[in-house]
Amino acid sequence: MNQTVASAGNNGDKDRSDCLVTIELSKSGGLKIDLQSKVQVLYGESIEALSKEVLNFFDIRHATLTVIDKGALPFVLAARIEAAIKQVISTEKEYLLDMISENRYSTQRNKPRISRLYLPGNTPSLMLNAGVHKPDGIILDLEDAVAITKKSEARILVRNALRSHDFLGVERMVRINQIPMGLDDLEFVVPHHVNVVLIPKCESAEHIQQVNDRISAIKRRSDLKDPIWLMPIIESAMGVMKALKIAQAADNVVAMAIGLEDYTADIGVNRTKEGRESLFARCQIINACKAAGIQAIDSVFSDVGDMDALKENVLQSKALGFEGMGCIHPRQIKVIHENFAPNEVEIEKAKKIVLAFEDAAKKGLGVVSLGTKMIDAPVVKRAQHTIDSSISVGKLNKNWRNEIKD
Q1: What's the CATH architecture for 5-88?
Q2: What is the reported pLDDT for 73?
Q3: Which of 209, 202, 207, 271 is nearest to 239 (CA)?
């Protein structure tokens, strides 16, 4: 590479838990670290030690590294230095921090995904306490939330976060960039215990196949065994019309979401709170998901200050058949969970159906009835889903049968 000076990171007035690093290569003089930090007295030595370790790892022997620190954790500092280095030298090496034991977990195909919190992939401050808010999943976003000039450094930061930041057991998702660019993103997330990959602007089953082909190649190289689930996001008229084929494209597709901001732009209308303009598309997604046996996930609600409107949106979403939705602020999580959860009437009805079915099965009866109504297999399945959902959100005890008998 011709350039000898490069920077990575952020140093704006609102940038916290980040740093801006600038590297300037030289032909002699060894390594010089110019550190500016409010915590220099306490952590200056460790910051300089990590900086030199990363520089030495990439065989940088003569350079000045300027670090303007705003409280960056080691995984952030290492990512920023690596990103700057890769602008001034050509290298395939990766400086990998240790994978913490807390991040070595996989997730189940049918786990609840009622809430998924979007986090910009190049903003470390929003990652730090994400798990505390207890969403079902966090989404480290490499797509729309990252400026085109910051894509490369965001990939490295997300990779380091997957390895070294404790998200407290939350399902860890990454939204890659639109295909084909997003295929290269997979190299930075698949080897590092990502649980779910979100595929934006998905318009065909071929997109799913392309992603799975790259995932399979990476897993073979890395000797990985844990499943990596896929969640395509439908954001165009073409995607809506091909929703069923996309939902059925592969066994590791566990959910499908709709992105209404891009969808409404694609069909040339404004998105409204009432949602009449997207009803057809949402119903298409729901029916495709139900036919394929996967979870249907609604779009985000963009007004983070209007909790009443969010509640109405969630109730409408649930009534249509969605099983969860994205959120862009932690304050939305509680409203989403409370209103997607089964209400008391639904829980009591489900309990009666399940108990009636179990009682009939014990008696060897082929016909199940509750009052004057016959109960068939789909009704029982729906009731059991209500029971499972109620248990997962704490509205029902796992031992609810014993409580009834007592």
Answers
A1: 2-Layer Sandwich (3.30)
A2: 96
A3: 202
